[in-house]
Amino acid sequence: MTQNETAVKFENVYFSYDGNLALEGINLDIHKRDFMGVIGPNGSGKTTLLKLILGLLKPEGGTVTVFGKPPHQSRNVVGYVPQHTSFDMTFPATVLDVVLMGRLGQASGFFKYSVKDREVAENALRQVGIHGLKNRHISELSGGQRQRVLIARAMASSAKLLILDEPTASVDSRNEEDIYHLLKELNLTTTIILVTHDLGFISSYVNRVACVNRRLVCHPTSEITGEVINETYQTQVEMIRHKCGL
Ligand code: ADP
Ligand code: MG
């Protein structure tokens, strides 16, 4: 694999909080256009792994590169849907306002949304299928619709890499399937890293899986494609379940 096919690379990465090791000796390659599922028990370091990719945390050993650069230099092409949204849903904002916030990272100079920002935000809303709700107050949305707003916000940041931390934790299974389906479409042009507990769902959407339990317990390096995906994956998921004790 050449350097320019790599989206994210971890080389022998260590991280601890207050002396407690959260991640240990992580080596991981995520290729452009991968749809990588990250699984592992609670407290196993999944969110920490994502925060290292986002440059919100710095490794205490080893290196993380994102599109060949240190994470903080790639932040403007990475969209993030956090596990617990820090966004206050009672804040007086419309759907479009929230999606426009995804453009903040693109601003140069004193911030003001441009015509292009609005176009990009409206297109993101079309892509996630809720453009008709653009003037709706965010408090008036269902859980699944809110999740789409957050995905649209991440997309509006012109993301080449989308990172989602348990995005379907608060939505019902019907919406969950829709969201995975949407992500699969986005994956035609965007690298996706998705943390989830839902092995059943991810097996039919992702092409790679990383199982984290402080260390990387399993990380298939061979690509899984085409007709074999379901069959192969079923076995792999069973294997992962077994290895991770899930
Ligand atoms: P996961 O997302 O897999 O549930 P995390 O990456 O959030 O796991 O956490 C990994 C470990 O690091 C856990 O033991 C957790 O308690 C600890 N941890 C996470 N965030 C902090 C923090 N801000 N301060 C101290 N310990 C933390
Ligand atoms: Mg987490």
User: Count of helices?
Assistant: 8
- Major β-sheet, in short? 6 strands, mixed
The oligomeric status of these chains comes to single chain
- Count of discrete structural domains: 2
CATH architecture of the largest domain, by name, is 3-Layer(aba) Sandwich
* Average pLDDT for all residues: 82
Give the end-to-end Cα distance, rounded to a whole number of Å.
32 Å
Number of strands: 9
Shape label: globular
Low-confidence runs of at least 5 consecutive residues? 221-235
Q: Name the strands of the widest sheet in spatial order.
A: 5-6-7-3-8-9
Strand content: 15-25%
Could you say which structural class the secondary elements and strand pairing correspond to? alpha/beta
Calculate Rg over CA atoms.
18 Å
Approximate helicity band: 25-40%
CATH topology of the largest domain: Rossmann fold
The CATH class of the largest domain is Alpha Beta
Distinct small-molecule ligands in the complex: adenosine-5'-diphosphate, magnesium ion
Query: Secondary-structure element order, as H and E?
Result: EEEHEHEHHHEHEHEEH
For the structure shown, list the relevant keywords:
binds adenosine-5'-diphosphate, 2 domains, Rossmann fold, three-stranded antiparallel sheet, globular, 9 strands, six-stranded mixed sheet, alpha/beta, 246 residues, binds magnesium ion
